[in-house]
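User: Design a sequence. Structure:
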């Protein structure tokens, strides 16, 4: 890290000195500039900066123009904006222009150091990534660095070769290098959580925790405690101190799924946490600093909710700095064959069987089916077909698409004539539980999360089926 250099652009001598001292103590060589012209000269002379910090308002222009130029001409360089206290709109604008992150005046040194560490991780990844092409054959300017083999393998989780999915992958690569809040939109079953995990896993926070929470699944009276934690004795039943979701995600990413379901009272508190980058546990007196990137998702249209007053306008613009729309399966029918073959292999691996094949008629039926539940529905259809299929090849009849659409969750099957419906459903549920445990490497908490049920429900079902 001692060879890394940072560029600080600010017209206040005292702030430049503070930033110089702080970054130097972190092992960085620091260059300072008091205006845009000086910063541009330094960038032109040195293409190896690991980080740039720039003020919003400078004597000869606006820091936003510098951010745009850096993103255009030095796409490998993370640039962060220094904004005036309370100027939330400035921070949001900077992030939209391509800023890596922002820090508010007066500068909180702990927040600054966390931001710098995250930026330097990006730079180290760039330096360590193997060069796959010569410089003159470098990828287009939208790709900031070459992917490592591990990153390429992660991207393979997004199955599909359509132009739509190529755009999604390209956007995810960009978003992984930023700390800007992202709103992932799309219908149910389009893979919003998978996209959030990829943004986390491909970015500098990959070594930190990824905490996912379904905002609609938490009772409103417990929401503040779940998000921010509580102190022992703060309310009836608070028998011990409890860490909240924000603290659990510290140093990593917090994924707020179905964020549209947050009640208004919680929206106010969430907005404050995002702005202050600190939380106060229920019953606590002290604020605790947090370093968390927020990713959100919803299948609802948030703008109409904002207009109706059901979702706060200021929170909407803080969470929706960058939107990542996930396409429906109807918009990428050319990917259905690849997806079906992929999930049949996954199902076979999970169930300890060779993967089934789809007949020509079955494939045609899938490619013309209207998927209201998108990829999740496709998976459920294939699970049902594998269960009902008597041979190794799945026919169009095995898919049973005409009789009833597959629900978003669960398995819709007809039992064989020699077994009762209850016995057959219990057999399927037992298999699903066992598969989930194997997938989670027998971590019950993770298995419950993957199944979308509470830990208590999972424990009850394991006891019911005598699964140890």
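Assistant: Done.
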């Amino acid at each position: 890290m001692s060879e890394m250099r940072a560029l600080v652009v600010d017209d206040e001598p005292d702030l430049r000195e503070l930033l110089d001292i702080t970054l130097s103590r972190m092992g960085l060589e620091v260059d300072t500039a008091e205006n845009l012209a000086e910063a541009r000269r330094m960038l032109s002379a040195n293409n190896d900066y690991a980080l740039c910090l720039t003020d919003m308002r400078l004597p000869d222009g606006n820091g936003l123009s510098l951010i745009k130029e850096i993103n255009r001409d030095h796409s490998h360089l993370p640039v962060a904006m220094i904004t005036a206290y309370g100027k939330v709109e400035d921070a949001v604008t900077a992030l939209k222009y391509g800023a890596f992150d922002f820090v508010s005046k007066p500068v909180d040194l702990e927040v600054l150091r966390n931001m710098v560490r995250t930026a330097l991780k990006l730079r180290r990844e760039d330096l360590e990534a193997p060069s796959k092409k010569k410089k003159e054959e470098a990828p287009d300017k939208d790709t900031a660095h070459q992917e490592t083999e591990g990153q390429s393998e992660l991207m393979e989780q997004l199955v599909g070769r359509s132009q739509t999915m190529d755009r999604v992958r390209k956007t995810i690569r960009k978003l992984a290098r930023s700390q800007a809040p992202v709103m992932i939109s799309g219908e149910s079953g389009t893979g919003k959580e998978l996209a959030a995990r990829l943004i986390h896993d491909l970015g500098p926070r990959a070594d930190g925790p990824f905490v996912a929470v379904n905002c609609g699944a938490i009772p409103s009276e417990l929401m503040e405690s779940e998000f921010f934690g509580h102190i022992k004795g703060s309310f009836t039943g608070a028998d011990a101190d409890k860490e909240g979701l924000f603290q659990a995600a510290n140093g990593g990413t917090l994924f707020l799924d179905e964020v549209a379901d947050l009640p208004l009272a919680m929206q106010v508190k969430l907005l404050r946490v995002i702005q202050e980058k600190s939380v106060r546990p229920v019953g606590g007196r002290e604020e605790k600093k947090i370093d968390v990137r927020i990713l959100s998702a919803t299948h609802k249209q948030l703008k109409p909710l904002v207009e109706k007053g059901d979702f706060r306008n200021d929170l909407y613009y803080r969470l929706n700095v960058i939107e990542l729309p996930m396409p429906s399966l109807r918009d990428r029918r050319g990917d259905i064959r690849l997806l079906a073959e992929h999930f049949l292999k996954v199902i076979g691996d999970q169930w300890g069987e060779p993967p089934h094949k789809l007949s020509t008629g079955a494939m045609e039926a899938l490619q013309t089916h209207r998927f209201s539940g998108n990829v999740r529905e496709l998976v459920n259809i294939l699970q049902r077909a594998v269960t009902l299929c008597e041979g190794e090849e799945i026919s169009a009849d095995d898919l049973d698409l005409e009789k009833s659409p597959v629900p978003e969750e669960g398995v819709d099957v007809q039992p064989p004539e020699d077994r009762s419906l209850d016995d057959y459903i219990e057999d399927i549920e037992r298999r699903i539980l066992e598969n989930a445990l194997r997938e989670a490497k027998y971590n019950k908490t993770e298995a419950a999360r993957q199944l979308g049920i509470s830990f208590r429900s999972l424990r009850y079902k394991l006891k019911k089926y005598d699964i140890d």
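Residues 109-128 form the longest helix (20 residues). The chain has three domains: 5-128, 156-325, 330-464.
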